[in-house]
Amino acid sequence: MKIQEVSLSDYGKASSVPSAVNRMMTDFAVGFRDGYDINLGVGYVNETTIPRQQIQTACEAVLANPEKYRASLNYGGAQGSPNLIESIKRYHIDNRIGGINRDIFNDNDIVIGANGATSLLDSITHLLPSGIVFTADPMYYIYCNDLDRKGFKIIAIPEDSEGIQTDLLRNKLKGLGRAKEEIRFFYVVTVNNPSCTILSNNRKRELVEIATELSCELNRKIPIFFDNAYRDLIHDSSVEPMESALCYDDLGIVYEIGTMSKILAPGLRIGYMIGPKGDFINSIIQRTSDIGFSAPLINQEIASYLLDNGIERQIEYVNSGYQRKAKQVKTWIEELLGEYVQTCSGGSAGFYYYLTLLNITTDSTSDFFRLLTRTTGSEEIDGPKQNPHPKVIYIPGQHCVHPSGDMVEIGKHQFRISYGFEELPQIHAALKYMASAIVYSQRRL
After folding, report:
1. What is the mean predicted confidence (pLDDT) over 197-215?
2. Residues 443, 425: Cα–Cα separation, whole Å
3. Contact 415/396 with Cβ under 8 angstroms?
4. Residue 180, CB half-sphere, CA atoms under 13 Å: how many?
5. Which of 286, 283, 291, 257 is CA-nearest to residue 128?
6. How confident is the model at residue 444 (pLDDT cuts 50, 70, 90)?
7. N or C: which end of the chain has fewer CB within 10 A?
8. Residue 177 backbone class (left: φ over 0; alpha: ψ -120 to 50; beta: rest)
């Protein structure tokens, strides 16, 4: 008799089947040729932005000062390093980040995630009951896919140039009727991934107002989580300074999630949450304890040292590099793809452009995709099977819009490219290949 497989939970069953993006990136990774194929799909930071020497100096300084950085190679407390928590406070206050002051920090707690900001997002889904989650469309597909697997129902509201459209959100809320009782939280990325649309301060204030009104209507607090992963990478000086949503919060429902990955190094795995003191933050701390006590304490202390010593220079260096790349890539997009580009967002923050092509599909079954992945079946286009012509990785818009949302059709014509990881010559070459893919798609119409 055949023994049955291991019994899985509903989440386990959903996770046993890789997501569409997981499958796509895995397929690309197999046989990917460094220095030949071009990866505009991954959201890696540029290697030159990682301050290797400063990190080495910080590590040596931490180990040389056990009085301040106590037991830095041992386990840490679940809330996080007291040094790092104080450094985050000083960083925000001294640099006037979002208008946060000492009084706001006195009303809120800071929690360091066990493994970057993603671990905090994951904790939210374990600590809140399943139900309805509101977010923007296009959406942060990695987290939203996770929400789907864990039984949450996502309602994605299309964004405009200021972010999630609050008038559409109000209409959607009104149409829910009694189903409003199933709403669990709002999730908003302030510099959206994939579109890099910057959430305006006015729109942010409206979102807090909507969540506050809904909380009062339902007689329970509905939290709103602002993901600030790319907040420190606003490199366009014409953009209004981003205000913290904590400044608008009178009810105690706003939580902000930050990260050191984009300004220091993803490998440090430092993410943090700022939010009202109380049961929810306490549950986040306990969850962190349950899954590993804390982030590696040595990493936290290194991050603390870096925040206290020259972080302003580091951020200026990182942003100047991304600004230079953003301008050059935008010029090339206009030169090489311009007449076929219907819309293009990004370029003022983060390191993504999100494009909509006119009458050209970009999904994983499209001619555009097949040419860039060298899977057309034509040796002239693909190259020899044993050594294909260069491949180009991007994220198709079909994966970035919610499958039951309002942007499914337009998503088939959209895609995200990163100008973060690859250097400019490779990006230029990739855009030339994309121009060829458009021509190929036109011929096949």
Report:
1. 98
2. 28
3. yes
4. 22
5. 283
6. low
7. N
8. left
